Each structure stands twice: as C-alpha cells, then as structure tokens.
Amino acid sequence: MQRFAHVLLIVLFFSLPSISHSALNDYFVTTDWLDKNRSDVVVVDVRQPPLYLLGHIDGAYSIPRSSFLQTRNQVKSLVPTAAATTELLSSLGATPASAIVVYAEDDNPYAARLVWTLRYHGHQNSYVLDGGYDKWSAEDRNTAILPSARPQASQYVLAADADYLQARAGADYLYTRLENPGVLVWDTRRDNEYRGTEVRADRGGHIPGAVHLNWTELQTEVDGVKVLKSRDEIVALLQAHGLTNDKEIVAHCQTGIRSSYATLVLLGLGYERVKNYDGSWIEWANNPTLPIVNAQGQIQSSVQVSLSLNDLAGKQNSPIKR
Questions:
Q1: What amino acid positions are annotated as catalytic residues?
Q2: pLDDT band at 159 (very low <50, low <70, confident <90, very high)
C-alpha cells in the first residue's frame, strides 16, 4: 500500500501543469545591477540622438529607431526581419552570449520594444533598464558626453527560438479570435485613444471586446523617476481588469511600442500565453474591413460582421468601456 501511494504521488507530480518561474528581473534590470555588471554588458541608448549627445551612460551605443522598426505593406513600426536584426547585433559587436541592456527615458517604452524584438529573434539575454537614463543620472552614476567608440563588428548568427517566435500576433490571428472567450485583447493606449476621441489613424476607437488599461499604470514614481510597480501591485492591477494568466493575452497600442512594455511585464510575471500585436491600431484602424468600436460605441466595418457588443461584453463578464 505504501509503495502504491509513493507511485501515485510521483504520477500526480508529473501530471501537474507546468509552472513558470519567470520574474520581472528576467526582463528588467536595476541601475545597481547594471553598475555592478557594466564591463560585461552591451548598453544601448534608444533615445533621440540629441539627448544622447547631451549625456548618456558611459560606453553606451546610440542606435536609430529605424534599425529595429520596419515598414512593410504600408504598415510602419513592424518587427524587423531576421537579417536586419542580425545586422544590428553585428554592428554592436554582440555575440549570442552577450548581455544587452537597453534604455531610454524613464517613461519611454522604446527600450522595451527593442528588447522584445531581440527576444523575438532569439536573443533572450536582453533587458530593459528600469528607470532608464533618468534614474541612472539622478543617482550620479558614470555618464559621458562624447559618443562611445563603435565596437569591432561581429558576425552574429541568430539562433531562432521557437517559443519566442510565437510571441507576435498579426491582424488575421487577432480577428479570428475576437469572439474566443479564452483570448483577451489588451489595449494599452491612453483613455482618449481607446474611446476614439483622440484619432491617430483613419478611424478612432478600439478593437471590439478589448480590455483597456493604460501601460503607464504599470509604473509608479519614486524620487521623481518612473519605475515599475512591485510585482504584487501589478498582479492586483491586472487581475482587477480581468487580465489573468488563464487567458491568452494579445497586447496592442498605436504601433506596438507601448504594448511591448506590457508584453515584457506579462512574461516577467509568468504569463504563459502572451503576444504583442506589433501592427497595432495603425494597421487595424486603417483597414476598413476590420471591425472597431467607434466613439459613439457602435461597431464599424465596411463588411458585414457577426460581432455584437453584447456578446463581446459577455466575454469579459463586464460591460464594454466606452
């Protein structure tokens, strides 16, 4: 009997669902960590070039945003090709073993977009500097004015990671899952963008059924600098909006920049089914065949759709926000 119980425990253990051991510091690093590991890290500055010239982390390389954002089929800010990413990593002198830390301003999500891009293409050893240059400089850490000498180029070879290649969603993928109760769309834009009163594309509004939570709510201000909230605070915030780990979550914003930050946070919390829709609102709203909820709260599309506001509200177990 004792032997049977022992075997049963083993069977139960291996039949349990896998538990992710991800942590926020798997995706975001502190200024203390970077200071201690500075000599072993490739540091990248993705702020606008004039800011870099006014002061940057000593030894950091400035790169243009065009090196990790591409326009295809008239949709801007899409994830670059593997070839473009290889060229970028090679220009930084990086190898597959290199740790890469990216920073911008404290409330600028472009650093997260580059990190998401690098990880999407398989370079998982890349991180966002929490608090960015604002926190680094406020702490009187080593900075420089003169541009860093460019490193000797490497011959970087990407090793595609199948798991991360699944971390991106396209418009077709999202459209076919709008009525799937197991999939939630997270709109990370500002309130007025979501409502449709701030129009930054051909149409204003939001994707039917989308849950709205501005990405800036993931941050808090400490000593005048914006940094990530604590894990417990973020989990409580997400759960209050129904963004729970039992759902597949597809995040988007205007061009997939802000949603990259949100995506990294979800991954750092151990969410197992997360995708960033990099085409985002600029692609969705500019395609008249795709449905939106406009500023009047009505579903709008140039083709007949079967979606109903009541059905989509029921999917979230709460009324659609207008």
A1: 253
A2: confident
